[in-house]
Amino acid sequence: GFVVLLTTSLSLRVVRQVNVFGAVRYLWALLWFLPVQCYMSIQLFDYHRVTSVFVKHMWTDPDLAWFREWFCDAGTAHTECAVPIGGAYLFVLPNETIDENTAAIGEERYCQRFYNSTDCTAIREDAQSSFEAVLYFYYTCNAIWALLTALLILLAVRLLEGIITKPIVQRSRQHNVPGWLTLPIIGCIFTGCILLWSST
How many angstroms separate the CA atoms of 63 and 93, rounded? Predict the structure, then answer.
């Protein structure tokens, strides 16, 4: 959105003065940015519920302490609300099979052992659910805004094509096709280098 705002602000004089060369440059700035905008918009849709996994497994991390203070019940951010999933398995007896039921039992034993309580899991899950709801609301608002921005870019491109006239646009595209092809080539080379020299 900031890039579009900056590009549009710099191009207002071009459009007012009907500067064809400036309008062509503005057109290509938008055409180059449109695929990036669409790609970034797609990233805002959490198809595989990665956010839920992140919240569940990183909940006790110090980086999320501020969020626990907001979403946990008062006074539980570093106690009952932060009961660890991994630590709960330490309280599963050797003869018990580890599954969801025994994990819940282990968490309850952990809660009783350290906090003299039995509702740690419920407190933590309520806080995590509220946190996830806020995150998904934030992602959804940003995704809608990003798609609207992409639509505005497409509308601006169509208006510019009408101002510049199709013959000039067509000739400009013929000259800029090699430039268009450099972007996926650079992306492939960059990804290949990462995979080739990555330590893992």
Answer: 31
